[in-house]
Amino acid sequence: MKKMFALIVCFVLALTGCAQFATNPTSSEGSASGSGENTGDVTINVYNWGQYIASGDDGSIDVIAEFEKEYPNIHVNYTTYDSNETMYSKLKTGGISVDVIIPSDYMIARMINEDMLLPLNFDNIPNYQYIDEAYKNTTYDPENRYSIPYTWGTVGIIYNTKYVDEADIGGWELLWNQKYAGKILMFGNSRDAFGIAEELLGFDINTTDDQELQAAAEKLKEQKPLVQQYVMDEIFDLMENEEAWIAPYYAGDFLTMAAENEDLAFYHPSQGFNLFIDAMCIPSCCQNKEAAETFIDFLCRPDIAGGNMNWICYGTPETEARQYIDEEMTASEVAYPDEETLSKGSIFLFLPQETNQRMEELWLQVKTN
Questions:
Q1: Element of type H or E holding 78
Q2: Distance CA 178, CA 176 (A)
Q3: What is the pTM of this model?
Q4: For 105-115, what is each residue's pLDDT tens digit?
Q5: I need a surface site. Which of 146, 263, 311, 335 has the fewest CB within 10 A?
């Protein structure tokens, strides 16, 4: 069975026109027209991370099915992405048209800056009242106009205790240990990968200094011969099936993997780590805004939010939702890092366009080196 957990520690965090949606739905069956502003039957296109909404597996709630049961005139066409950068690129180039997205904090700030998000009508989202104050007035959306928190989480290292020596764990340097060459996975997106190298080198994970960015790129080039694959969602099968032994990834997804392989363990690196919030937003190419806000409101309802977190294994920003979350995980050090551990976490901030471009250039060099 999938293990489950919830958040009990709160912390304060300091598109242009699009083409017709062209991917296949993965939600429960239904038929609707995608035209009109909630007039008659409509379809909303929801674009989310992989394995990031409860779908009825392992006895969990099927969130989309429950929503469509409660709102039979709204059909959900659900598709997934594997990184913030993939989602951003698709929307920026007009490759898809979607109504709801769930980006991370730094990407939300970038999309606000580039007029890629629509302000929310909170009259259609009354369940916003359940969002804890600690998750409002954030650095990425200081006026609470464009986003509603969905989850929070941390990044750390997952390793297989059957193959990895306990003497080698503790910091990010495990990802550069030649003893495990060919069994190490690495993030497949630039921001997470550079953040790790910057933490290891003692830099700010939001640095804009070109010399520091170059030093981080050199560190990633040094690591490349040891890396089996650069991955995102592929990590689940590779770690659960022991094809790889070491990988950096999100704590919530570790709990999912550990439920499938009890030899997997997790730690927060001593040098520091990324602490993040993912939030629900409406992109500027939205075709059914009121229906999209109805869906967001449904996800904010405490019983739905709690049931959803039970399956995706991330923390909820709603105290009221915790009563619906499995209590057996409340003692988990992964699910509930103590204050000392959380104090080592840092959030990704919105970086200037030239810094993002430079990072992408260097990242391409790393992967093609």
A1: strand 74-81
A2: 6
A3: 0.86
A4: 999 999 999 99
A5: 263
